[in-house]
Amino acid sequence: MKLLLKIWRQKNASNKGQMVDYPIDGIEEDMSFLEMLDVLNEGLINKGEEPVVFDHDCREGICGMCSLQINGEPHGPDRKVTTCQLHMRMFKDGDTITIEPFRANAFPVVKDLMVDRSAFDRIQHAGGYISVNTSGNTIDANATPINKGDADNAFNAAACIGCGACVAACKNASAMLFTSAKVSQYALLPQGQVEAAERVQAMVAQMDSEGFGNCTNTGACEIECPKGISLENIARMNREYLSASIKG
Amino acid sequence: MALDSKIPKGPLADKWTNHKNKINLVNPANKRNIDIIIVGTGLAGGSAAASLAELGYNVKTFCYQDSPRRAHSIAAQGGINAAKNYQGDGDSNYRLFYDTVKGGDYRSREANVYRLAEVSGNIIDQCVAQGVPFAREYGGLLDNRSFGGVLVSRTFYAKGQTGQQLLLGAYSAMNRQINRGKIQAFNRHEMLDLVKVNGKARGIIARNLVTGEIERHSAHAVVLATGGYGNVFYLSTNAMGSNVMAAWRAHRRGAHFANPCYTQIHPTCIPVSGDHQSKLTLMSESLRNDGRIWVPKKKEDAIAIREGKLKPTQLAEEDRDYYLERRYPAFGNLVPRDVASRAAKERCDAGFGVNKTGEAVYLDFAAAIQRYGKEKALTSGIENPSAEKILELGEAIIEAKYGNLFQMYEKIVDENPYKTPMMIYPAVHYTMGGLWVDYNLQTTIPGCYAAGEANFSDHGANRLGASALMQGLADGYFVLPYTIGDYLSDDIRTGKISTETPEFDEAEKHVKDRIQKLMSAKGEHSVDYYHKRLGKIMWNKCGMSRNAKGLQEAIDEISALRKDFWENVNIPGDSAGMNTELEKAGRVADFLELGELFAKDALNRNESCGGHFREESVEQSGEQKGEALRDDENFKYVSAWEYKGEPKDAELHKEELTYENIELKTRSYK
């Protein structure tokens, strides 16, 4: 396959960036999208140029490190996959592909296609945990039966990989889907009840202070989420927040 | 220096309790004056960081990823073992201990493994308390599944994402301590050297990967929880960034490296499709419960399949060779990982492999689909179901069990595994070797600890499925918090460790000189060029089957490649600011040293045990003819290598292994 890549290049956070054209040839459809970028980078290095920087690590869709806005969509045109699992067979010979970093005020560009998502970590610091010591001297794991439906729903919310596609997909760059997934995981489990009110308030406050926008109710986040995190989580977080506010 | 494993005296089952009762403690007020550095934030590092911070120590964590949550523990699929005996199927601490020692082919330490089994139940309690959403049954209690090499159901799981859920649990415990100010997390940072003061580990030199700055960090103790070194093979199931640098830098500063040749090659991975391949993807071991592994019986059929002239589904039953069922009738498709991998290689080397490359075998679910379909038709009361109906019902059951794996396979290979057999091939997955540690998880450098996959202690020569997660969390939550306190009880009057000392000056200069040397080569080849070449040498000569001639060649070739690398590697850009090629170069430079020591260790160990198979050491006769032959008389020891300059000059220290509670036997799966 022969392709024209239009890639965002930016030296560092304080520099201005720009789109640069890179024609590329010899791409096979069995390659993953990131392996296609590996080929591009190998060529750039051999010419003495700096390779295009992008985040990636596990390359099996679970670490949440890879990102990329491909032809305007987070993680590209395929559904329920991360960029590392996107394959070139989704594209045609002769295609032009635009590759940009995830765009959001709360995700400043570090270099080229790499962004800083530490705002997500800070939201978790604010309350994304259950305050239990790691002594191992807790109650037996089977002492509290948990309804299978609740446990499964908690798992589905906990499957979030924290990649930030929801933010990149949202025209308001809202982090509601991400934050609500963590709130929901704990809200659905008995272990999470004790601190539920403080948790949702602290996490939402941190989310707001990071500069993420409000929810648009458009649902683009759910469609672009590689793990299929449901919008129901946002509704659940709103309920949790409301009831926490009333309790004061 | 003689190796002292510091195994406590007394009966096996009492060792850990007695040890905990006797070790020194640090009072809470003094803990506030003590700093601990933890490198790596996977299951071992993350759980250690949270636990130590909770006790009151000041913890600094370091990871190269942008968040602690992204460490490669996150990719573990299958589950975590624990001797809870919730199923009432006869499980016990002793049985988990026994299975692990046997599975490791009698090359692990009894006392360490027993402790692992002993704390395993608490891990599950702890994780549930933290809100880890394990799979549950309809009654609301925890569900278990069964894994290879054992006869009980002791594996706890969260769909195919157990590692992710456990790591997010540890990360949440870290977040609580970060919020309290007890953990400072240095993300996008890489440890480039260990700093020793008066023989003790007192800090590290790290590079801020965003700004390129070289930083000094001091502490009273340093924990390395930096994972395994499978990426020395270039292609593996490890993450792209997984590397040996922290462990290797500690090795160069005096920490012995144990059993580097013990590598787990996992039998069920998606095969390599071409030269561009950057990484291999695992298909969970659980698939071998229902999949049958085969290759064509006739060579001409294999050739026709490779050339695309014949489809596997067209091959009649009698033309298929279910070679695991043929060779190992008792265990069949569920033999341990090392045995299954070697058998696949044997068939492919003999010319029966499929895929364009000839390096793949089939994992076929057709029989399981039929079996489940018929059963479902029967239980649903469908009389005389049509062939299509059986297929439909059977596929639905397979989808419920393995749907996410089948989907992943289809995305990567672009073939529907419900309709045509999966193709699989072995791939490097886990390294049992690592930094030598004593019972307290301390390396041969006082104050420097190693936890999780980075140490060598619990899995012997082969790790059982679902045991890596157990070990990582056991080390971090339940072992280090005690043993580090014992060591640090001497440090309550030490005060803050200064970074303005000759030792830090020397280490920083060493790091800067090395970066300078890498940057100034300005040769003609990229870092990946060298990494791929190293991987080829490792795979061909230190892979699933090893012999003295090949290993000697590997030593020479890696040594020559390393020399070439330092003269001719090409790293564009500069070292100020982010430079991903420089990061890779530092890691590959260390792999080029480790690879040579790996081959040397494999050459020294002239026996076959677990994942280490020497062609010179096979059974010559009898029922086991051709199978791996362990040599307990000459090799019942841990190889701990001391750094002496070039890897080929490393000095071997032996830790004899003693088995007082288990009788040594030949593993048989016939």
Write a structural description.
The complex is a heterodimer of chains A (248) and B (670). Chain A has 248 residues and is of the alpha+beta class. Chain A is 34% helix and 11% strand. Chain A contains 8 helices and 7 strands, in the order ββαβββββααααααα. Chain A has helices at residues 33-46, 118-125, 148-158, 165-169, 176-187, 196-209, 220-224, 232-247, and strands at residues 3-9, 18-24, 69-70, 73-74, 96-100, 109-111, 114-115. In chain A, the strands form 2 sheets. Chain A has a 5-stranded mixed sheet. The model of chain A has no long low-confidence stretch (mean pLDDT 96). Chain B contains 18 helices and 19 strands. The longest helix of chain B is centred in the middle third of the chain and has 27 residues, at 387-413. In chain B, α3 (43-55) runs parallel beside α6 (162-179), α5 crosses α13 and α15 (527-541) packs antiparallel against α16 (548-568). In chain B, 38% of the residues lie in helices and 14% in strands. Chain B has 670 residues and is of the alpha+beta class. In chain B, β18 and β19 (651-656) form a beta hairpin. Chain B has helices at residues 15-22, 28-31, 43-55, 93-103, 110-129, 162-179, 245-252, 299-306, 323-327, 337-349, 366-379, 387-413, 468-488, 502-520, 527-541, 548-568, 580-604, 632-635; strands at residues 35-39, 58-62, 80-81, 155-156, 183-186, 189-197, 200-208, 214-218, 221-224, 257-258, 263-269, 292-296, 320-321, 361-364, 422-431, 434-435, 448-450, 637-642, 651-656. Chains A and B meet through α1, α2 and α3 of A and α3, α5, α6, α12 and α13 of B.
